[in-house]
Amino acid sequence: PPRSTPLYSSAASDVYKRQDIAAAVAMPDKVFGEKVCVYLVLVDKPSLSVKELAKFLDNKGVSKEYFPEFLIELNEMPIASGGKIAKGKLREDIKVRVKAEPKVLLN
Question: pTM of the predicted model, to two decimals?
């Protein structure tokens, strides 16, 4: 999706009410330019798979183009001084991860 299009982080953050915090950010993609990556903070819960999240988003009527292709679980979400999620830090993090493991993340 284009950068100006919302990535439905509110839908992703509502997944089964399982996680305390979720944020969707754009990650680089060789073919489409960008794809969706969701960062999650899960508290005392098992991991969440991409398939589980996709099924939930599909049931909510979210377009498949907004489904995440990658999930990253964190111990805590970076928070900006205003109390909101520091998405800029997440975007930088995914760029670093893509550079470190391009075969895993860009295929």
Answer: 0.73
Helix (H) and strand (E) counts in the chain:
4, 3
pLDDT tens-digit series, residues 35-47: 889 998 877 777 7
Residue 40: which residues within 8 A CB-CB, separation 6 or more?
A: 19, 21, 22, 48, 71, 72, 73, 74
Helix (H) or strand (E) holding 56: helix 50-59
In whole angstroms, give the CA distance from residue 18 to residue 3: 27
Q: Where does the pLDDT of residue 18 fall: very low under 50, low under 70, confident under 90, or very high at 90 and above? A: very low
Q: Compute how many other C-beta atoms are within 10 angstroms of the C-beta atom of residue 7.
A: 22
